[in-house]
Amino acid sequence: MPTPKLKAIIRRIDDLPTLPRTVFRISEMINNPRSSARDLAQVITDDQVLTARLLRLVNSSFYGFPQRITTVTAAIVLLGFESIRNLLLTTSVFDVFAGRRHDRQKARENLWDHSLGCAVAARVIGKHIRHEKTEELFVCALLHDIGKIVAMVYAPEDYDRATRKAEQENMLLRDAEADLLEYTHTETGRMLAERWNLPAMVADVIYYHHTPEQAGAFAKEAAIVHLADIFCRALQLGSGGDNRIPSLNSAAWDRIAIRKADIATIMTEIESAYSDISTFTDAATAAPSV
Fold it and tell me: Does the reported pTM lie above 0.85?
């Protein structure tokens, strides 16, 4: 049963703004097998901000297409429906919290950098092990700590108490939350994902990224995000709100089956990809598309 504190967070989540309506329309169209690239492009081009962001992203060095892409239809054909949805979802999510709590802007930027680093790392790991859905891994990792943003913005006293305890006792923020608050960012993150009707994979990976062996059908995806989080912290990409590197889950390591000899190469690829995606950071934190 939810604790009183968790119930309070649930009520806060019920009051959170929703994602832009265009993103929901895009998701509905992608789920409709009759939708064409032209149909999807029409919906996207009706929103000038999303259109600009999409073209900026697909022309960034992160994707590395040899020729400049000038139309949304071409971007859809090259990347595919799922990748387009995930890109637009990603650029919209953090807009929901933009302009709130300016006194915490630096902490929010550090957390965004950490989340972006994890997303890049998950995509690199996914490609290395030939996972079929690397773009979905990117989104799962990008949102894995969204519950921290909820606490930072809507329960700042709780967030401050937890981060102080984590710093003073050199512990993970998740453990500090569990000790002090009776809820964790993984719980609030999953609730937010469910409120936004995000795919079950995203919600479950958010909830289980610290305990990937418990993630059932999405155990492998949770394991990848778990490892991405560790790599990102080791590379000091942003800050997750604490100074600890989580212990490597042995079951997650076995499930991913990466050779130790490949770790250095993967880490180098993560750093390079993170550098390449700097334009993505600009697009994702730009003015809200509302």
Answer: no
